Amino acid sequence: MRELVGVVKEYGSRPVLRGVDLAVAAGEVVGVLGTNGSGKSTLLRILAGISRPSSGTTSGRPRTGYVPDRFPARQRMSALAYLCHLGRISGLPAAEARRRAGAWLERFALAGGPDTPLRDLSKGNAQKVGLVQALLPEPDLLVLDEPWSGLDAATRAVLTEVVGEAAAAGTAVVFTDHRPDFVQSTATRSHRLVDGRLQLLDAEVSTCRILLRGGEDADWAGRPGVVAARRDGDVELEVAVAERESLLLEAIRRGCAVIAVDSRAGRR
Ligand SMILES: Nc1ncnc2c1ncn2[C@@H]1O[C@H](COP(=O)(O)OP(=O)(O)OP(=O)(O)O)[C@@H](O)[C@H]1O
User: Fold this and answer.
1) Quick one: how far is CA 87 from the chain centroid?
2) At the N or C end, where does the chain have fewer CB atoms within 10 A?
3) What InterPro entries does the entry give (predicted)?
């Protein structure tokens, strides 16, 4: 769908990307990690087609929705009017643009409602408008630069759901984030940008140990996120850190006592 080969990007004479190869296919969710200033936003701008590489090639021109790391929302226009305007520019009939924009704003629970002027929006609410403008044209490729940052817990969960739905519908998603466990549990493929090049991360996940006593019996080994389960009176589970909270909740619901949670269990 979209491919970068040998992409180099220099600002002045300083190379930020030094030869990036990245191919993204329909339905994939690609996560990109990297330290501050490593070039993630630069890479995503090139992927989204709004910045040109200094050298190397890009191919594929999917319909793309892009959320920048900072969404500039300084206009007096209302959120809904702004989104309708962008929807029209992307070729949607006015009524359809209005319907889609209204539905997305409701799903993301824009505080103040759709008629709030953009310049009055908080950072998180402006981010929601940024997300909606990217989703509005039903893109084939979604390029999301730290899209979860600044959102409250409920909206973060909605966005995770939306990314999963988009991928299931065949949209390719590429996102950046700073949380390795989150990236690896959300993405179907994860990379780290180091020294201007992309490293592929294996499916390694951080695990932790949970010790449970009593409660109802359960097929713990069959639960998502459980890497190993041992029963020796107590139940000892090795679980993916990303699933720790949901498994603890389930254990408590089953009446188990949580004897220990050791977050230094290791990596698999
Ligand atoms: N338009 C630009 N002109 C000059 N230098 C730039 C420009 N955009 C980015 N840079 C520089 O390129 C480097 C990579 O920036 P980039 O924003 O891509 O990193 P990042 O990995 O997204 O960082 P962060 O995690 O802090 O968002 C930084 O040193 C930055 O200062």
Assistant:
1) 23
2) C
3) AAA+_ATPase, ABC_transporter-like_ATP-bd, ABC_transporter-like_CS, ABC_Transporter_VariousFunc, P-loop_NTPase
Tell me if 40 CB under 6 Å of ligand 1: yes
Rounded to two decimals, what is the model's pTM? 0.78
Q: Is the CB of 36 under 6 A from ligand 1?
A: yes
Q: Which atom of ligand 1 is nearest to the CA of 193?
A: 21
Using the structure block, give the residue that is written with the tokens 């403008």. 133
- CA distances 108 to 31, 45, 129, 181, 182, Å, are 22, 24, 9, 24, 20
- Give the CATH superfamily of 2-201: P-loop containing nucleotide triphosphate hydrolases (3.40.50.300)
SS3 state of residue 248: helix
Ligand 1 contacts CB of residue 37 (under 6 A): yes
**Domain map of the chain by residue range?**
2-201, 206-267
- Beta carbon of 11 within 6 Å of any ligand 1 atom: yes
**CA 197 to ligand 1 center in whole angstroms:** 14
Residue at token pair 């909206």: 155
Q: What region does 18 belong to: left with phi over 0, alpha with psi -120 to 50, or beta?
A: alpha
Contact assessment for residue 49 and residue 60, using Cβ atoms and an 8 Å cutoff: no
pLDDT the model gives residue 223 = 81
Q: The complex's ipTM?
A: 0.97
State pLDDT tens for residues 137-160.
999 999 999 999 999 999 999 999
DSSP for 113-163, please give it.
-TTSBGGG--HHHHHHHHHHHHHTT--SEEEESSTTTT--HHHHHHHHHHH
H helices of 169-256, in order, are 180-186, 244-253
Task: Determine if ligand 1 sits within 6 Å of the CB of residue 263.
Answer: no
* Cβ–ligand 1 contact at 16 (below 6 Å): yes
Q: Which of 7, 10, 11, 13 to mutate to test the pocket of ligand 1 (most atoms within 8 A of CB)?
A: 11
